Amino acid sequence: MSFSCLRNVTRCGMVKVSPSGALVSKLWGPCVAREVQTSAPKAAVAHGTKPDWNRAVSEAEKIVGYPTSFLSLRWVLSDEIANVALHLRKLVGSNHPLLKTAKNLIYNGKNNMQAWGLIVLLVSKAAGHSPEIPDMEQDKAAGVLHSQRALAEVTEMIRTSHLVHKGLVNMNAPQVGPGGPGGPGDPDDMMFGNKIALLGGDYLLANSCSELANLRNQELVELMSSAVRDLAEAEFLGERDEQNNPLPSRPLPKDHMEAPLEWECVLQPLPMGGVAGSARREWAARHVLAAGALLGKSCSATLKLAGHAPALQTQGYLFGCHLALAWQPFLDLEAFSGPEPRSFSLVGAPLAFTLQARPELYELIEQGRRSVHDVDYHKLYEAVVAGDGIEQTKQLQREHIRAASHVLDSFPNCDARTALANIIVAMHP
């Protein structure tokens, strides 16, 4: 069955795109491009060697002028961020999840996606801009508009504020770990960390709203606001433990699954019909809401700022959506690429495919209703390794990589497009 995710939404400049049966029949995914093929991704890589992730990002940053992250010098030196960093030091030695979030944000390796602003600017430069845009609005050295660079920072601020807010701890639930004064799990540390997470996330979100309003584009504000809504909805999808950690839905036989609904993933909320119990569709819905919608809508919005036609704006949305969905399998597979970890994502694709094949394993998931720490990760890990969930996840990633590469072909051939292609190839399993 095919699912159409794009409607003729005139308010945000989108156009209807015909679904590709070949892609949708495999993915049940939310982002469908016109005549998406399954050709391998193409990149202009010297001597045919696969580009290293850090090198691909470094080269891409040179193309757009300088690093795009809002964690740049002007933000790090601001009084507000300095105060947050100072108070954050007081949490060292506690087990508050905000510390892990801060570490992931600062560490600029392949295990995070702080290159989102960079991708938005690369899409901006690859597509160019309308000749009617005044010279004063152009950053001629970087080949992008000043408004597009501001949008790239807004994208990263929204993403980061969401991650920081996710670090809040439910103080009403029983705490895991020793609770002696000053030790891990100490209520005072947890409460203090919550205040920092709440205020820090609010500060970033408020600044993103201010920067977005300064662009003076109502359709753009509406589009990006819908992305913030999607991030919030992602935190309420499916079952959760008492700390709001996600749990997968119980797998359902195909003859018991609810008929899937069409996915309108532009401005309208994502319909949840046919999601629960379907491994592939639930995984896609979860990560479209939590990541794909923001990156896709940011890529679409930057093309709107450049004065491009709705058709190309749609292609930008599709590219961002597929790129985010190609990135997530890499994160899901990290736990199964080395020594057995103490824990791993219970809503990752490898376990989702394994549960679909062996529904009886869901009894182990039931143990985590109070806390995900109560789950027997060893048994689940062995089941994943013994089955074909890992290979199915790699195949899922390859499908989204091919889809993103195909959409990239609609952009003019230039150094920015080559940089995007190299980033895609660097993600390839």
UniProtKB/TrEMBL annotation:
- UniProt record, GO biological process: isoprenoid biosynthetic process; ubiquinone biosynthetic process
Q: A Gene Ontology molecular-function term?
A: prenyltransferase activity
Protein name, UniProt field:
Decaprenyl-diphosphate synthase subunit 2
GO CC annotation terms, alphabetical: mitochondrion; transferase complex
Leader sequence segment: none
